[in-house]
């Protein structure tokens, strides 16, 4: 988050939560202005003004009973002296934007410091939730990347995977599955034939995964991903004789889940989302037909599996 965004966030939350009124404070030479907040506290007119280390001493202190400078810095080293006049040190609260923390708050300003502290904690919670929303997607991407690294090391080639290595690691091979190696229906979805194959699939997973993870929740997301991937492998086993690998079947399942979401929530998200998803599906089907060595039956199996399992898992009250 940029300094300006950090400052806007603080101003908005102080205004919304603690009834401060937004105002404008000018520099001593009247050439620039600063955001401020004013409020009457205990029969005193208090003003908070947001500054940085370059302009902290260049602000016109208007006639308030309490004039408090909120100094926002980045990567504060507490050993570094600050250019604040000694007589004003009790009127300054220092924040570290990068550490999302209060570096200095005098005892006299503990009430305001407590308000800012609660807002900083709230911001931290928001950031944690954002990260948590994509945890499963990031985990799946990580697993795919690790297995590709193993494949590349065994293949002695970072750009193209040796077919013998892929078979050894669990690619879908019809003859071996017929002999009882059913685990290949699962392991095949984590293997990739080359660096470009991996990059394209991981980009698609990165683009689609967070939406499905947020909409359906982490457990249902995993169920959709793995069942769609398994059905993709089954379709490939039944209708395609070639060796097959890749996460694209499971990713087509996420497209199916997105389609169900768009249809169910069309009154809230708009019909345009459904059209866009159908368009993306159509483009991918066309690419699959036009280009060689693409397991279209696996893609269709993943899409159908994703639609069916998402429809079963969907609850009408998920967004109520």
UniProtKB/TrEMBL annotation:
Similarity comment text for this entry: Belongs to the peptidase S54 family.
Tell me what organism the protein belongs to. Answer: Clostridium brassicae
Q: Which UniProt keywords apply?
A: Hydrolase, Membrane, Protease, Transmembrane, Transmembrane helix
Q: How does it sit in the membrane?
A: Multi-pass membrane protein
* Name under which the protein is recorded: Rhomboid family intramembrane serine protease
The membrane spanning regions, by residue number, are 135-154, 185-209, 221-239, 245-262, 274-291, 297-314
Residue ranges of the Peptidase S54 rhomboid domain?
Answer: 180-315
Q: Which Pfam families match?
A: Rhomboid (PF01694)
Origin, by domain of life?
Bacteria
Biological process (GO) annotations held by this record are: proteolysis
Question: Main site of residence?
Answer: membrane
As for subcellular location, the record says: Membrane
- What InterPro entries is this protein classified in? Peptidase_S54_rhomboid_dom (IPR022764), Rhomboid-like_sf (IPR035952), Rhomboid_protease_S54 (IPR050925)
What is an example of a GO molecular function annotated in this UniProt entry? peptidase activity
